[in-house]
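INTERNAL AUDIT FORM
Audit reference: QA-55
Scope: verify that the stored structure record matches its stored sequence.
Auditor: D.O.
Record contents follow.
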Amino acid sequence: MIRNAPPLGLFVQTLWLRDAYMPMSPSEFVLPTGTVEIVINLRGGILRVSDSTRPLQYESFHGAVVCGPHSEAFVIDTSQPADLLGVHFAPGGAFPFLGVPLDELRNHRVSLSELWGQGGEEFLERALAGASRSNSIEAIEEGLVDRMRSGSTLHPAVSVALKAFLAGSTRIGPIKREIGLSSRHFERVFRDQVGLTPKRFSRVRRFQALLSSIDGAQSVDWAALALRYGFSDQAHLVNDFREFAG
């Protein structure tokens, strides 16, 4: 949880910490959320990530990795214990910090030092130098405030669209009529600030909402869920599951 009041609270959804993280499985399948995350290995070691279609062809990142907005699943190597600290940005919350249009990071992972140069190295050093986990979290919060570009706010059209999508809407037409932008202009600013097209983002968020609704369920009425979440039929729902879950 972010302890800071705004400005960070407007952009960062959670700061999470997993000490000695080593699940039973040597790898972990990560489903897409359409959002951005920075993951730091507080032991200073390597983080390894791969596409879900090539689960054994890992990319290696030293110390910290930025996971761009994903509409595809990916795999992380969990075969070695690690102390992980993560910054999970709210939808649309990462663009003031990363310094690039988020569309450039779509379905990609990149090292923090590659993205921020020397600033990324210093950011990581501050996190690793903390005498306690609390100190590391404070260093991350301070580093993010330092990285925030002044005057960075979501385009009003993006704010309106995100509010609608996060409330469960998947209809683009009414949103475009409300914001009064051309389709091309709206899509461009949305991709720059969120990383996915409006339609794809709305579909990923619908997928995540559906997953949350069946978490822990003993049985599932898939036809009823398809109707509830605006799928044309059960086959449409199944196709989205295949696309986003691999």
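Auditor finding: record pair retrieved intact. The longest strand covers residues 12-21.
Action required: none
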